[in-house]
């Protein structure tokens, strides 16, 4: 039996009241984050990843947003029951956020050192001198060269990658139990991305924290996740240990996502069709209009419940083909469990074929596609 998770989200529903109707951005999401664990939420743009992460500490603007239902239990305490004031105290103390654009986390008119000192002193009664020493130490630990000298620099004097390091130092200032990082590397160029990811990995161990990493990039997931939550149109399609999900992707959506990874499936694949309307989603499984395995049962009623994959309660999938008495081989193909790729896995079913898991090198290509390369110049300035 595993210990009680640090964070436990149950049936979270977050909606936005808009002129076009009610947007069910997060529609019944459940997952846990264990202590010291990295959980990745992955899914296409618009699937509800950010809204999930921001619902945890109530960063959702209300109105138009509203956390309509669900439990968010953090270290034994239901956050949805806390006052705004109590939650504000928790945010940036025990739970910290890092965002895609570090610019937003830093105030342009103050030096980075001063901002980290303020973050420390806001949550802890320490002298200015002690806070200053800690801030320099934090800058040093997130890999800012000559931290003592750079303490007095302003945000604009740092490159994109260095700025993100500073915002991570700010997030760590209060020694949080949970760090929620929403696409923290997407705005950075590829080499810097990898540095930031491995930095987060190192810091997690060093600070003994849990990390919720939000990304649309399965390559990143393969590198850092312990567990994965695959979201689509506000719903969780599949979740489980990273090894299980990569080795035995069970929802057709997960399989389609993995097929888009170079080195798996046919690599160049993209998923046909697009996300359904956020105000008027289809009945049944939200993915059914794009699913090659859809049958009548997929088109009616609610999103299917979570079914255990091969009797494993830690690996669940929301797909009718996995209901008791169902036939998952419809999705997986006759006993072939690795990848969805008939194209790749000709080795017949032991699930450890050439295209199988955790082939992280492939991720570079995927990531490179979605990026600009402006970061590298800025980084050169940094060293100047
Ligand atoms: N303030 C808002 N008002 C109305 N709808 C919103 C608002 N914020 C988010 N949404 C909607 O909620 C849904 C989920 O958005 P969210 O930003 O969580 O997606 P995401 O998975 O993080 O996507 P991305 O990968 O692009 O960041 C989308 O349909 C989005 O349009
Ligand atoms: Ni997002």
TrEMBL record:
NCBIfam families according to UniProt: oligo_HPY (TIGR01727)
Family annotation (PROSITE patterns): ABC_TRANSPORTER_1, ABC_TRANSPORTER_2
UniProt keyword annotations, A-Z: ATP-binding, Cell membrane, Ion transport, Membrane, Nucleotide-binding, Translocase, Transport
Subcellular location: Cell membrane
Enzyme class: translocase
Domain ABC transporter: 7-258
Designated name of the protein: Nickel import system ATP-binding protein NikD
EC number: 7.2.2.11
